[in-house]
Give the backbone structure.
Amino acid sequence: MAEKIIVIGAGFSGLTSASYLAKQGHQVTLLEKNDQPGGRARTWEKDGYTFDMGPSWYWMPEVFEEFYADFGYTSSDFYKLVRLDPGYRVFFKDNEYADVPANKEELYQLFERIEEGSAIKLKKFLDNAEYKYKTALADYVNRISDSILDFFDLKVIIKSFSLQLFSSLQKEVRSYFTNPKIRSILEFPVLFLGSTPANTPALYSMMNHADLTLGTWYPMGGMHEISKAFEKIALNAGVEIKYNQEVTLITGSGKSINQVETKTDSFTCDGIVISGDYHHMEQKVLDPKFRKYDYDYWNKRTMSPSSLLFYMGVNRELPNLKHHNLFFDESFEGHADEIYKDPQWPSKPLFYACLSSKTDPNVAPKGSENLFLLMPLAAGLTDQPELHDTYLKNFLNRMEERVGFNFEENIEVKRSYSINDFKSDYHSFKGNAYGLANTLRQTAFLKPKMRSAKANNLFFAGQLTVPGPGVPPAIISGRIAAEELNKSLF
Ligand SMILES: Cc1cc2nc3c(=O)[nH]c(=O)nc-3n(C[C@H](O)[C@H](O)[C@H](O)COP(=O)(O)OP(=O)(O)OC[C@H]3O[C@@H](n4cnc5c(N)ncnc54)[C@H](O)[C@@H]3O)c2cc1C
């Protein structure tokens, strides 16, 4: 039976949920506070430069393809996908760097050059990572993870140990390799999971499979092409999308949600998926009688970091930089401590530089670069806009050493974005950039629940619930929430 469904949030989880629910035959309305699709994957254009505002790494392409296939498409119907080679460049101290190649044999040779005997170890490590990746996608990631009971079948328990759900990624990497450069290449993907290698389950070495085996891809036109593709699929499936509609109240009676208020309108519904930031929606928008968690619960969660970002148009080419560049020329542990142990504006930060103009001529004027910089920053700090330029100066100095000249005066477009912006644009809890950290204590059924404990027709999706942060998990989350809501309606 066609029911009236409201989905809140036009990020990847919301667009995915809405599309599947419409495909099930429901009458779906999607309400989004901002004026464009993509959520954190919005775009900003200025003076001929195009910037992806959030995600820039396209990993796990099969998750995107599965979504497209369910609606009769492939990614090529929307954008040209290219595999980057090298996937990225890592800058170390002392002017050294490593390019991480797409080709496996070249990758083994790179590791062997850095640490003798490491090629064979890498092969073993990656075989193990592949096993985890495939098992996790088949057995874990697609679960709603309501409770530990979800994991109470013998097969899953045995697999949990072989997947190393209960030991850390850092231990795993360090049991294979001693060289700090190799360790930082293998430990860096956890930055996406918003945690430290010591606190991230070894299960997540599956991210090394995603990185080093499946590869880093780029949709020509930019990551926002994906947001546009998802929006188009939702519209074609029959979803009505309403932008500039900030939801201010979600309520109902008994065990059912049936009313949604925005700043300007009022909607009735038979079912709802909330994909805006879980904390905000549950603590500030949902009628208190439908809330499961409280202030203390949320305050004890470990959030992923916030970020200090810069979007800059540079009117000359910057040699020696690649599409993706990781500046690991400072201590990873030192920066991580200033994010998690003793939160403060970092003293010697690592940072990431993205120049998609190296791959894509359409995102910057000819002979120019669209430079995106990201520094992870503890969630919950007070934003200090007066510090932004001090950090920028530091990053420019470090880049200029590699580029070979000063390019400050070539910066013709400049915008910084940080904690206050995450809060005002997304209602992000403590200004987090990518949701809840995937720590040992916040994995699977230990995350905020997708299924509401108080209303039968309410589900949460997105990066603060299962399976976790990142675009592919957001897509998976949206699909699971739609399936579960659909089941609950019959
Ligand atoms: C700087 C940055 C870099 C990243 N890099 C990568 C990367 O390289 N690769 C990767 O895979 N992932 C990356 N991520 C993470 C990834 O972008 C997110 O995990 C994912 O996009 C989250 O999708 P979502 O649907 O859960 O949430 P969101 O994208 O946040 O969508 C939620 C939507 O809900 C809306 N909303 C909130 N409150 C309301 C309300 N009251 N009413 C109506 N609408 C509301 C918001 O405006 C937003 O559009 C990055 C994130 C950031 C911020």
The chain has 15 helices and 19 strands. The first strand starts at residue 4 and ends at 8. The first helix runs from residue 12 to 23.
